[in-house]
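Known limitations

Structure tokens in this collection are predictions and should be treated as such. Users comparing against experimental data should check residue numbering before alignment. To illustrate the layout, the record for CocE/NonD family hydrolase is reproduced below. The input appears on top and the generated tokens appear beneath it.
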Amino acid sequence: MRVVTSLPHAVKEEEHVLIPVRDGARLSARVWRPLSSDAEPVPAILEYIPYRKRDLTSVRDSIAHPYLAGHGFACVRVDIRGSGESDGVLVDEYLEQEQLDAEDVLAWLADQPWCDGHTGMMGISWGGFSALQVAARRPPSLGAICIASFTDDRFADDMHYMRGCLLSDNLAESGTMFAYSACPPDPALTGERWRRMWLERLDAARPWVVEWLNHQCRDDYWRHASVCEDYSAIEVPVFASCGWADGYSNAVLRLMAGLDVPRKGLIGPWSHKYPHLGVPGPAIGYLQEVVRWFDRWLRAGQDGRADVTDEPVLRAWMQDSVPPSTSYEERPGRWVGEHTWPSPNIRTDVHPLAPHRIAPRDAEAVDEVLSVESPLSVGQFAGKWCSYNAPPDLPYDQREEDGGSLVFETDVLTEPCEILGAPVVRLDVSANRPSAMVAARLSDVAEDGSATRVTYGLLNLAHRESHEHPEPLEPGRRYQVEIPLNGVAQAFPAGHRIRLSLSTSYWPLAWPPPEPVRLAVHTRGSSLELPIRPIAVSDEVTLRPFDEPEGAAPLATSVRSPGEYHWDVSRNMITYESALDVLKDTGTVRFEDTGIEIGKRVHERYSWTADDFSSPRGQTEWTMTFARGDWHTRVETCQVMTCTPTEFHVHARLDAYEGAIRVRSRNWDVTVPRHLV
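Generated tokens:
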């Protein structure tokens, strides 16, 4: 990324501004704005997240917000209630109170003498969620949003559940927020209030996974803040982006199809990162795109300032074939564009499934019954549901996974083939249990036999008709089911094959069903639908090239102790216990502007024994330290989740220390009934 030191506007920064909300609480904000805004008001852009502007996101913030402020915007980074130096407690995600607070913040911004009354929102992950959800509430000053790595459907396509299947990221995210919600504010900003604020947070902390397990169907809890319930509620222009290695790319495609406002979609090869910091590369000049978007929609009386309406609705990185790897520095490929979505350029090719073959489009259907009963080991090389690119967390060579799967393959491709969109697997199936899942994977098989997973999809078969009202399977009865795979742009070269793999478990990416399942697939009624995009050489000629990534100079940090990263798969051949261990230790980092030193160590372990479907166990352990001078605090959390065929069990522990003194120690033991999961 190119560091820009000279910007069109000189920028002033206010490190700690308290914004009042309707119930008297105050939220902590950091503000960057042009010096000239004292006399010439400008639009304000809000990023609203719970990840501590003072330290944990301060480096990322320092790259983006001063850059945008230098281009004529007031940028305001607010920690939501209960995080950072903001008042209150943080007890769950996307609550009504959180969104009411956001409306109050936007109203406050619009009323400031340095704001011209126009506001926008931007953000990635929670920040992208926030902006989209608040936009659906139509606050009067909000004129446009730029969002990255978000979802419009909190139940069917988020880190908690995927089409009714319980994801292990549900436990991992709970571990993140269990620790984050218990972190102290900085006494340098709050004064002696810090200890009272911290103890209030510790007393309110809880393992959020319990709440999420209490909602195993699509109910009002998930419908709240899922904008797919009513796309028409969004009335402002939307610039939405994500990466194919992220967990949220489907939402970009759905928004481009569902919204009826000016909109632009961007999907690159990236993991869960802003596109100007995107890995795998190539990263792009995303902040320049954000400036253009907000210039176009927030500048009063300047509609022609930056015309972005004639560009494609969707730009996507068409990924070239690569060998399987758990991480990539770069993904080769090219940008393609579609001016409408769904696009008339995309055709759907329906390929019948034959015995172990993906048949040609015009092939006559073959009536045969094939069965699979996958071991729990299928999924150990699946990577994370959402890649953060640290440590390497992408799927590895799929050949070992395919050994426990039902596999279908095309003939060797005689010419290149490219897909853009969501492949769909349609199956005529029966099962021998009332509760079952199907994992469907699409792979690019090279001439040497190595298999790179291109996309995948999950379906809890009890959710085949409805996420609101799942129904158990009748053992032996045949059902027609549809499994949409995650959207993707992928090129398959001549000489390769396309492989579809079906399994009845995919642990630890998704929690397995209560019992082993034998699934029967009737080939005559089963097919694979591929969204074929004819290869066109005109894209690179007609598309405006992206600029080089650039941003403001990042805040200075120094490493006090080195970090450590591991991603290990193991199997004990005496006890038959297998495990995936993920260690993410950032070491200790000093933030030079504030002098605070922060350490973060995370260990996730997902284990199982042989094919005992009651043996899966997930554990997350977090240690976070905050120190400056004689101020030392530490938060330690642990969550353990196990199961029986009828229940989930959660044990959690929280310990907090001020210096050597443990100021809080809390434990939870909770049992949640399984509901066809």
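For this record: Residues 300 and 632 are 48 Å apart (CA to CA). The longest strand covers residues 577-591. Please report discrepancies through the issue tracker.
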